[in-house]
Amino acid sequence: MESSAILAEIPRLRRYARALLGDRAAADDLVQDTLERAWSRIRQWQAGSDLRAWLFSIMHNLRVDQIRHPVVPTHSFDEDDFAVPTRPTQTDTLELRDLESALRQLPDEQREVLLLVALEDMNYADIAATLAIPIGTVMSRLSRGRERLRLVMDGQAPVARLKVVR
Question: Could you please report the per-residue DSSP string of 122-149?
Fold first, then answer.
């Protein structure tokens, strides 16, 4: 395995981690932890299998561990933290903020699948392998996530469709 194959996946790992966490420093830490674990367990990767799916699986499992064992939050005071990127128009920035806010309102399971499909352009089989769930569950979470995202973006509260069982 050449290191260039893993290095080529870093931009995708960073993009997904930033979208998932919403914090640049935490996302970079997650990517670093992912790469460290991948390098230390490179012998576990099976030649011929999808390297990207393997790396995303490692990242997913690390994120689950982080959720189970939260760390005391810290804040860095780098100069980059205070630089606000500007878009050509204000409406673009507002729409991105609305989308980010709407994504934060989705359950983690739906947001993960939605980001892997929309942001990482992964197919259902790769997502199922990455998250260790059946393909049918991927499709169900994606469908429910898209519908809920649509409702939130339209300003409607998602309605819980629960049946009363007696």
Answer: --HHHHHHHHT--HHHHHHHHHHHHHHH
CB 30 within 8 A of CB 22: no
Q: Could you tell me the sign of the dihedral formed by the alpha carbons of 50, 58, 24, 89, in that order?
A: positive
Model confidence at 61: pLDDT above 80: yes
CA-nearest of 33, 28, 39 to 6 is: 39
Which range, 45-59, 84-98, 148-162, has the best average confidence (pLDDT)? 45-59
Give the span between the Cα atoms of 106 and 98, in whole angstroms: 13
Task: Provide the percentage of residues in the chain whose pLDDT is more than 90.
Answer: 43
Choose among 8, 13, 3, 21: nearest CA to 111.
21
Rounded to whole angstroms, the Cα distance separating 141 from 134 reads: 11
In contact, 52 and 13? CB cutoff 8 Å: no
User: How many CB atoms are located within 10 Å of the residue 66 CB?
Assistant: 15
Q: E strands of the chain, at which residues? A: none
Per-residue pLDDT for 77 more than 90? no
Provide the pLDDT for residue 51: 87
Q: In the 8-state DSSP scheme, what is residue 79?
A: G
